[in-house]
Structure formats: structure tokens, C-alpha cells
Amino acid sequence: MNTSSSPIDFLPILFMFLVALGFVITTMIASHWLGPKRKTKIKLDSFECGIESEGNARLPFAIKYFLVAILFVLFDIEVIFMYPWAVNFKELGLLGVIEVFSFIALLLVGFYYMLSKKALKWEE
Amino acid sequence: MAKEIIKRTKLEIAKSPEGLEGPGFFATKLEDVVGLARKNSLWPLPFATSCCGIEFMATMASHYDLGRFGSERLSFSPRQADMLMVMGTIAKKMGPILRQVYEQMAEPRWVLSVGACASSGGIFDTYSVLQGIDKIIPVDVYVPGCPPRPEQILEGVLKIQEMCQNESFRRRESEEYKNMLNSYGIE
Questions:
Q1: What global pTM score does this model have?
Q2: What ipTM did this prediction achieve?
Q3: What CATH number should be reported for the domain holding residue B166?
Q4: How many structural domains compose chain A?
């Protein structure tokens, strides 16, 4: 039995790739070409649940919203990490306690920085 | 093998259109193939404003399962939708919104008006309710009922599928169609 193979034996695979690629490209072009289109101003407008859009979406807004949201996400994640720790509390033992506390300590540094920057003070 | 499975599960497969058949090839009209594809892959855009919407939920759920007819993919953006299903009372304030949604749908588009309110205003013959959505957008199929049963909604969808299959390729380009849209004030 001849077990050796030359690169030419893999030519069908190349053909298969070409056919697969060709099929995708042809269908995309054909559907664009065949499909009916109607381009009006209203149609090309941005879709906002059927309500006419007013002004530009890129408006300046108070950074406080963004700040509070991001900080929430940050400490939210911290709490999420505590759940698997709580489930595996006994198996992880003292090492787990040290690791999680160091993680919390790192985030507490951030929390201290946040307070010192007065990120949660709305009136100022 | 495939035929056996179809026989055992009573699966119904879409019939292939008429054409020239031979060993290893099949030739037919493009219009028929496109019609077949459109018919069996309608993407609905639900515009449910009241109780007919509840019936629509039943239609989509497992018991009646609109997915059996190739319409399980709901589109909540008009960009990828083929069939606008208006279900429920359309107040006059909602009118322009419905119209905007219709106008932003991709071509070709069909409209199914479900229930008495969407079709004619129903019992709400008042100053605030639009007396039928065909006052602002063209409607293809009306489903009567207050509210209609899911079977009736399915029947309406099947009627739209029939229209998709038999629609001429050039209908949307024709003067007649353009005049019809213009009569609604839609470009």
C-alpha cells in the first residue's frame, strides 16, 4: 500500500475552499443585485422605534452618571467574585482567605482614591 | 434515509417549483425559486399594542408555533423584517410611528393587520383611535376577530406566504405599485 503523499494530492481541498469562498461571494453579490430596493430619506434615517430622531446623539452629558455607573460595575464584580469563594470556602482554606482579602485590599485602595477624588459627591 | 425520516415524522417539505429535471440537474425560473425562499423564511416584525398581541404570543409559543412556517425569527428592528404584523388598537398618536416603522422596513415588505381594531378601529369608534391602519399604510391581509384565535393569525400568515410565492418579480418596480404607495403619501 502506498502511504506516501505528495502536495498535489491535496489539490481537491484547495478546490473545495475556492468553491466555498466563491459560493459565499456569489450569493452575497447576487442577493444585493437581485433584491428590490427603495432608498428614501425616511428609510435611511436612523431607527428609533419609529419616533423621529431629534438632534445629534453625540451630546455632552454629566460625567457623574458615567462615573457612578463604572464604579458600580467595579464593586459589583468584586461581590460576584465572592460567591465562588463562599461556595469553596472550606476547600480553599487559609490560602483562599489571604488571596481574597488581598484582592479586596487592592480594590479598597481604589475605593480610597475614589473618595479622595470626591467621585461620589453630586453637588460639587 | 432522508425519505424514511420524512415518512416517519410526517414532515412536510416545500414542493419544488415546476422545472426541467434530469440526471444531476434541475432548471427552473429564478422568480419561482426566490418566491419559494421568501415564502418559507418570512421574518415578522410584531407591532403589538393590545390584546391581539397576547394572541400573537400564543401563536409564537410551542402550542401553535409559528416557527413551523419559517417565521420563528422575530425582528424588532424594521431593517431585517419582511412582514409587519400590526396587532391591536392604533391610536392616532401611534399612527405616525407605525408609518415610520413601515417606511423603514426592507423591501419587499408585507403587512398583516390582525384583529378588528387594526383593521377598522373595532369598537373604538372615537376621536382618538385610527379607524383602520389602511388609512396610513397599505395592508396585504386582514385577520378579523376580537381578538382572533391563533389559528386565524396562522391563516393570515399563510395567506401572506401565498402572496410572496406568487408575487411577480417586477411588481415592486411597477407604476401601479408606485402609484399605490404615492396614494398613501409614501415615496
A1: 0.73
A2: 0.71
A3: 3.40.50.12280
A4: 1
